[in-house]
Write a sequence for this structure.
């Protein structure tokens, strides 16, 4: 065997060994990353389950409170709003879960398959639309609750200074799903599910934490005051509801707040005034019912609240 020929044989063998070593390293790395993303996904799933348990408990607690207060119209209205919130949230969660279940059927190293399905089949765009619509719906449906501003959940990295220039100006689909494994996509979608549940919890806190400050009963009627917030900043508008449960039709209700008569519609009146004084204070609500014989029956409740400086 000529030396030149032997050299080329050894060279080919060496290159093959190097290539095999690199392939083994890359395979091990890929396996390591898959384990990492799966572990992260399981941790996030655990958090989603706990968030679901918290909202279940909050829902049950609200229903118990409303029942204890006599199933007032205001309380039943809060229950309806919670039911609507949970239905819309469930729709989003199920859409994300359906996408995850499809990805779980792919091979662990199916980077191109996962990316093509999310981007070329426009699954990522559909996911973005679903998430954007949910966040917008929350801000509109519950704008009376003074909610914190909910950030959008499906943004790209356009004009984001945290990214390198070569990574900039990618939309949501390409920023998150370009050359990603199924395990990575599943973990990301689970993180979106967790954030959806946290947004839902924030709204439920407002619906559940409103103070049914009093439920007063006398003879054949019950009267209640509900304030969605007990603490506001100076200059903000304080709002509350006064309502009556009439057991008979013989009463003609009137309501007064801060010595100002209120317009009563369907046994309910809205209270609203601007908070100008800082500190703990109260406002007075009065329920007046004129019964047969022109006799007035009044129930008075002093509702505490606190005004904070800006």
């Amino acid at each position: 065997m000529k030396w030149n020929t032997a050299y080329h044989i050894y060279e080919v063998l060496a290159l093959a060994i190097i290539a095999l070593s690199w392939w083994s390293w890359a395979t091990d790395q890929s396996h390591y990353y898959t384990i990492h993303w799966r572990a992260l996904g399981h941790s996030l799933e655990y958090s989603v389950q706990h968030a679901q348990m918290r909202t279940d408990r909050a829902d049950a607690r609200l229903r118990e409170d409303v029942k204890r207060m006599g199933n007032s119209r205001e309380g039943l209205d809060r229950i309806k709003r919670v039911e609507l919130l949970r239905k819309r949230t469930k729709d989003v969660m199920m859409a994300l879960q359906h996408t995850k279940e499809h990805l779980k059927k792919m091979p662990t190293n199916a980077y191109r398959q996962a990316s093509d399905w999310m981007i070329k089949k426009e699954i990522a765009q559909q996911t973005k639309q679903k998430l954007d619509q949910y966040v917008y719906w929350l801000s509109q449906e519950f704008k009376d609750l003074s909610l914190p501003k909910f950030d959008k959940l499906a943004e790209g990295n356009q004009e984001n200074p945290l990214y390198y220039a070569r990574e900039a100006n990618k939309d949501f689909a390409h920023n998150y799903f370009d050359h990603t494994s199924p395990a990575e996509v599943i973990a990301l979608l689970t993180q979106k599910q967790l954030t959806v549940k946290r947004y839902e919890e924030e709204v439920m806190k407002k619906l559940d934490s409103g103070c049914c400050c009093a439920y007063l009963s006398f003879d054949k009627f019950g009267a209640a005051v509900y304030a969605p917030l007990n603490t506001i900043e100076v200059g903000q508008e304080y709002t509350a509801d006064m309502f009556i449960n009439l057991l008979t039709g013989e009463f003609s209700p009137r309501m007064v707040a801060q010595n100002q008569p209120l317009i009563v519609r369907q046994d309910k009146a809205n209270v609203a005034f601007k908070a100008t004084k800082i500190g703990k204070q109260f406002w007075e609500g009065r329920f007046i019912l004129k019964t047969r014989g022109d006799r007035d029956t009044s129930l008075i409740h002093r509702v505490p609240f606190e005004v904070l400086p800006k």
Q: What stands out?
A: The first strand starts at residue 211 and ends at 218. The beta strands are 211-218, 221-227, 231-233, 237-246, 252-257, 260-261, 268-274, 279-291, 295-308. Residues 3-68 form the longest helix (66 residues). Helices lie at 3-68, 73-104, 111-119, 123-141, 172-177, 182-209.
